[in-house]
Structures are given as C-alpha cells and as structure tokens.
Amino acid sequence: MMLVVFIGVSQLIKLQSGFFESRTTETSEAVGQWVVPCFVILAIYLLGLINYRLIKVALKQQSWVKWGVIALDILLSLIYLSAGAFALFIVTFTYFPFAP
Fold first, then answer.
1. Which of 95, 2, 94 minimizes the C-alpha distance to 46?
2. CA distance 7 to 24
3. Other Cβ atoms closer than 10 A to 32
4. What is the value of pTM for the model shown?
C-alpha cells in the first residue's frame, strides 16, 4: 500500500515539475536524486515499525510462542526486503534511464 502511495505521489511531483512535458535525462535524474533516497528511508522506517510491533507482541507471549513470532518476524522481514529490492528497482528505473 505504501509503495502505491509513494509511486502515486512521485508521479504527481513529476507532473508538477514538468517532467512529462520535456522528457530529458536531466529532469529525470534531478527528481530521482531525492526520490530514491526518500524511498529507501521510508522503507527502512516501515521495516523498523513492523519489527518493533512484532517483537513487542513476542515479548508478551510464552516461551514457545515467542520464538514462533520471532521466526515469523524474520520470515516477514526477508519477504519485505526482497519485495523492497524489487520496488526500489522499479522506482530507480522510473527516474534513471538505463538505456540510451
């Protein structure tokens, strides 16, 4: 959901900055210089919130349930990181042209 909101807002910023009117690599890279770092910071922040909530729940459980929730947290973190890497590729590809 956050990815959809982020891409939607970044497309709106592209529209307001005149990105679509004069498509050049200079305008694309200028917008991408702040979009990609902000995307990474947002992704790290969201991962931290997810881990915080799951570990907080795990600490209140019994011993065997605690390790199950921690294992689930690790699994969800790995899935999140792989999906985040793919989403970062999409965002980067949108702003930085790889082909001439």
1. 2
2. 20
3. 21
4. 0.68
